[in-house]
Specification:
Low-confidence stretches: none
Distance between the termini: 24 Å
Mean pLDDT: 85
Shape: globular
Order of helices and strands: HHHHHHHHHHHHH
Structural class: mainly alpha
Length: 300
């Protein structure tokens, strides 16, 4: 599949969720239940399984892991700084800030296999293990603060953070599940992406982006321009091997996580605004990812 079409299935799943919710008997109450299923079960299982099944090899990829965390921390810093802009809507910012630094781990694993084979999957698994807990803490922080929730309590019971930490602990402990259990978890995790993306479509109101168009533009610019540019320079400055430079750039240029919408919906944020951001990020990523990868190739 050409790189430009890599994210087309994600965009079509969002469209399917939108059409099903609007024009069939499967309306909002159905999708509210689906959001809970995705948030509390499917996504945590997907993250756990992705991490526990892939060798992390931290000793060989220490610089890559540090670079990936630097990319996420930069995104968090830039996104949080937008709160100081005059006239920024507090609820939209608390809900949407996560879009600037979270990433679609499913697309990351699929694309890494296409670019670098099994080695690429191992590198991305390390980035997922290190960065998903960081991203989820960064996502919960403004939502908890804005909604008056206790931060420690929200972090301690966040299923995405718990699933990731459990996967990391199991991987480092060398845990190998019996094949029937591993296969069951794998099949549960496979349902996370399509249902999560369809839930985004079901909650979609692109008009909600008009609530804060400047904020939306800035968050997507961080996600699809500032972070890839930083990763491109950082990989060269650290003199990472070519394969790791490519994976780092791909990681920084990914579309945002579809679970951004689910988190905002479950924590009482501006879910429609986030659904619009997730949709646009997926569409922008279809175009920007091949551009960034082509730029890296041209600079080699």
């Amino acid at each position: 599949m050409p790189d430009v079409l890599l994210l087309l299935p994600d965009a079509l799943l969002i469209l399917a969720g939108f059409l099903i919710c609007r024009y069939t008997a499967l309306d909002r109450p159905i999708w509210e239940a689906a959001e809970k299923l995705v948030y509390y079960l499917l996504f945590p299982v997907l993250l756990f399984n992705s991490i526990v099944r892939t060798p992390l090899q931290p000793a060989e990829t220490l610089s890559l892991g540090g670079a990936g965390m630097a990319v996420v921390l930069l995104g968090m810093g830039l996104a949080y700084a937008l709160r100081a802009w005059p006239g920024v809507d507090a609820r939209a910012h608390a809900s949407g800030a996560q879009v600037a630094f979270r990433f679609n781990s499913y697309v990351a694993l699929a694309l890494a296999e296409r670019l670098q084979g099994a080695q690429g999957v191992a590198w991305v698994a390390l980035l997922v293990a290190l960065c998903v807990p960081l991203c989820n803490v960064g996502a919960v922080l403004p939502l908890a603060r804005h909604g008056g929730h206790g931060l420690i309590r929200e972090l301690a019971r966040n299923p995405l953070i718990l699933g990731t930490l459990a996967g990391l602990a199991a991987n480092l402990a060398g845990l190998r599940l019996p094949e029937p259990a591993a296969l069951t978890l794998h099949r549960i995790g496979l349902a996370a992406l399509p249902l999560g993306l369809m839930a985004v479509g079901a909650g979609l109101r692109l008009g909600a982006l008009r609530d804060a168009p400047g904020l939306a533009t800035a968050l997507l610019a961080i996600r699809h321009a500032a972070l890839p540019l930083f990763a491109l320079g950082l990989g060269r400055w650290l003199d990472l091997p070519d394969g790791q430079q490519l994976v780092l750039l791909m990681f920084a240029a990914l579309p945002t996580a579809s679970s951004c919408y689910v988190l905002a919906a479950r924590m009482g944020g501006h879910a429609a605004f986030v659904a619009g951001l997730v949709t646009l990020s997926t569409l922008v990523g279809m175009l920007s990812l091949p551009v960034w990868l082509g730029l890296w190739q041209g600079l080699r």
